[in-house]
Structure prediction request, 417 residues.
Amino acid sequence: MKTRQKTSKPDRSPHRLLRVLSLGLTFSLVSAEYGDAAEPIKPVPIMIEVNEAKAELGRRLFHEPRLSKNDTISCATCHDLSAGGDDGLVVSTGIEGRTGLVNAPTVFNSAFNFKQFWDGRAHTLKDQIDGPLQSRIEMESIWPDVVTKLFQDKDYPRMFQESYPNDPQIISRENIKDAIAEFMRSLITPNGRFDQWLRGNTGALNEQEKEGYALFKRYGCVSCHQGANVGGNMFQVFGVINDYFRKRGNITDADLGRFNVTGNEADKHAFKVPSLRMAAHTAPYLHDGSAETLRDAVDAMFEFQLGREAPDEDKEAIVAFIKTLAGEYQENNYQFDLGQSPMSAEFQEDRRNGNLGQRPAANGVQEISTAETAQESPPAEIAETVSQNGKARPLRTGRTARKASKNGKAGPVRTGR
Ligand code: HEC
Ligand code: HEC
Prediction:
C-alpha cells in the first residue's frame, strides 16, 4: 500500500522546524520516564520531511550526466541506488576512465553524517556537491557550463521555476545544489530488521544476530559506530592500536585523512567513522577499498582498532548483526511502504498525523530526527573495550580520544569538529 501524501510545503517554515525540535524534546522527556538506558544505536526515522518538488528535481539531477564535462558521468554512476548507493569498486572510475583516490561511500543515510567525505571536509550535503562536480577525476565540470546545459533542456527551466519561484536566476549553482541535497535527504533506509528489533519486535533478529549486537557492544565497536547511522558522528584514527599504514605501506595523501583538512598532527590517519547502515551492500570496504568482504573489514577492526583476537564465531555473529542494519528504500517514493512489519500500522498512523516517526518505542528507544542526529555529539563513554588480559578498559572517544602509541604511552588525538 502506497499512500502518497504531501510531505511538506514549498518552503519549510521556521514554525515547522520548531515543531520538530520540540517534538524531540518531548520525547526525550518521555523516554527518560521509561527509565531505560537508551541503546547506543537509534532507529533510522521512518519518515523525513522533504520538499517533494525539490527532491524530485534533485532526483533527476542526481541521474543527470550533463552535470559532467562530457555528459557521461552522473552522481548515480558512482552511487548506484539499486546497489547500496555506491559503485562496488575499490576506487571509483570517473570521467574518461580516471580512477579515484578513495573508496566511494554509500549516499544512503548520508543526511545523518555530521560531516561529509572520509576526511569530513564538507560540512553539509549541499557543500559536498562542489567536490565531485568540479573534480578532475570525477565530473570535471564548471558551474556556468552546467547551468547553460540545463537551461537548454525542455523540462528543467520549468521545474526550477516551480521549486524556486522567487529566484530571478531560475537555474543557478545554488539551486542545483539545493535540489540535489534535498533529494539526498530523502535517501534514508528505515525499518531494517535491527530497527524493528529496537522498536520492540523481539522476533526480528535471530539468536546469532542478537549475539552479534551484544558482542558489538561488548568489544567496544559501538564506542565508534553508534547513533542512527551506526557511525558518521565522529572522527577516529584508523590504526588506533596497531599501525595499519605501516603494515600496508605505500602511504598516499588520501591516507592522511583528516590531517589534510586541519593540518594537525593528531589528525593524521583520522577518518570519519563510516556508517555501517548499508554495509551489507557496499563491498569493498575501508577508505582504500582494501577489505574485500565485510568479514575482512571486521578482521581489520579487531586488529587495528581494538588490537585483539576474537573467536571466529564472534566475528561471524558480528557480521550477521551488521547485515540486519540495512533498511528499505523505495525510489520515487518519499514515503516508505513499510510492508508487513508488525509496527507498520502504528507508524503509518504516525505519518498520517505528521509525526516524524518520533515516538518512544515499546522498549524506550527514542526516535530522532535528522537535524538532531547530525548535531548529536558522541556520548562520552558508552562502551568498554576488553583488553587482551581480560580486564575491562574504557575506550575514550569523541573529541579527546586517546591513541595508544607504540611505546605504550597514550597521546591525545583530536577528533570531533
Ligand atoms: C566518479 C565517482 C563519483 C561521482 C561521479 C560522484 N561521487 Fe560522490 N563520492 C565518490 C567518492 C570516491 C566519495 C568519497 C570521497 C572522499 O571522501 O574523499 C564520494 C562521497 C560522496 C558523499 C559523502 C558520503 C559520506 O559518507 O561521506 C556524498 C554525499 C556524495 N558523494 C554524493 C555525490 C553526489 C550528490 C554526486 C553528484 C553531484 C556525486 N557524489 C558524484 C564518488 C563519486
Ligand atoms: C576507535 C574507533 C573504532 C572502533 C573501536 C571500531 N571501528 Fe570500525 N571503523 C572505524 C574507522 C575510523 C573506520 C574507517 C577506517 C578506514 O577506512 O580508514 C572503520 C571502518 C569499519 C568498517 C568498514 C565500513 C566501510 O564501509 O568501509 C566496518 C565494517 C567496521 N568498521 C566495523 C567495526 C566493528 C565490527 C568493530 C568492532 C569489532 C569496529 N568497527 C570498531 C572506527 C572504529
